[in-house]
Every structure is written in structure tokens, then in C-alpha cells.
Design a protein that fits this description.
five-stranded antiparallel sheet, alpha+beta, 11 strands, 2 domains, 22% helix, SH3 type barrels, Alpha-Beta Plaits
Length: 238
Amino acid sequence: MTQQLPEAPEAEQTDAPAEADGDAPVETDGAEDTPDPLAEFREELWSQPGDWYVVHTYSGMENRVKANVESRISSLNMEDFIYEVRVPVEEVAEIKNGQRRMVKRTVLPGYVLVRMDLTDESWSAVRHTPSVTGFVGHSHQPVPLSLGEVEAMLAPAVEAEVAAARSGGSAEQPKQTPKVEFTDFAAGDSVMVVDGPFATLHATITELNIDAQRVKALVEIFGRETPVELSFTQIQRV
């Protein structure tokens, strides 16, 4: 006769906690979820419809032209062809009476950027806007900017907004700035722009502001000499 072995007692179940697996969520401080405004700007720029064209205006009329074009877009029902009008700006430090303050200045004096689908009608709507002297390039077949060029022109405004947000949105407090007594630059000097939207371009200095550490210079943009303001740190001798 075969002897049966006694059955092993059932193991007692316990309420021991299960080991955490590698897929368990890890708490973070939320920093990784903070959106990058510059990255969002680039992504939006590269996904938008239309091409960017440069429109030449009378100097000092850039914002007026922007408003006029936007008004004509509505009155001529061109919303499906002309999408956006921008005046590139940057925030720079201005020294006045020994006080430093941040001001916004036009990056491209005498120019406005328009994002549009080029047709005879959209061309005419923009070209015949008051204070517009024409498109940059061929009169009726202007060449659009590359997105890299557009990014370089519009990014300074985004960077200024980011800097303002990081400082709590408050304007930078004016402060005394030591007077600079000496500079290597002089009116008439040829220099290379090494920073900003005009990087790699040659410029000719026309005026210096030693206290503000800035120069006025002529830079060839879109086939014509354009006056711009640059800081000493943005240029170097050639």
C-alpha cells in the first residue's frame, strides 16, 4: 500500500506592500514642465502658413504702416491671404543724464515684415498702403525671407519678454552708470557685427555715444544702407 504524504499547509497571505516597479511615477518639482517661450516661439514660427516678406517704409513710419496694413486686411477681406504684420523690436539700455533705463527700439528702421500668401491681390493690398514704398526684391515678385532670418529678427522681442517675466515683470530700476572715457571705435570705422540680428554683417560707424556705449552705424540690409544702433559689445574691428 502506498503511503500518502500529508498536504503542506497553505501559506499565510500577508498584506506586505508590493515592491515599487521601475514605472512608478517620480515626483518632480515641476521645473521640467515649465514651457520654454523661445522654443514655443520657434515651433509656432515654423508651423505657420504663408511666407515672410519685407516691406520698405518711410523711416519712422513702421508702426503706422503696420496699423494701416492691418486695417486694409479687414476692409479688403484679405484675412485668408495676409496673416500677420510685425515691426521687429529689441529692448536696449539707454543712458540719459547718467541714468540707465530699458527702452524698446525698432530693429529694422524703415522696414516691416508681412506674413502672407503672395497673390496679385495681396501684393496690391500691401504695396498700395500709405507710407509703403515697395517690397524688398523684385517689384512684383519679391523673394521671401528664410525662417532663420525671420527668427533672428523677431527673437529679441521674445527674449525681452522672457527676461521681464523672470524679473517679476517689473521694469529694471534706473541706476547710475560710470562714464566711459575711452573707446577704440571712431566715426568712419568699418566694423563687423558679431551679435544680434545683424551678426556677420559689415557696418560703418557714423556716430558714437560713449556714455551709452553705443554707436550709430550704416549696415547694408536688403541691398541698401540702413542706419541701426549697436552696442560696443555687438561690434569688433575688422
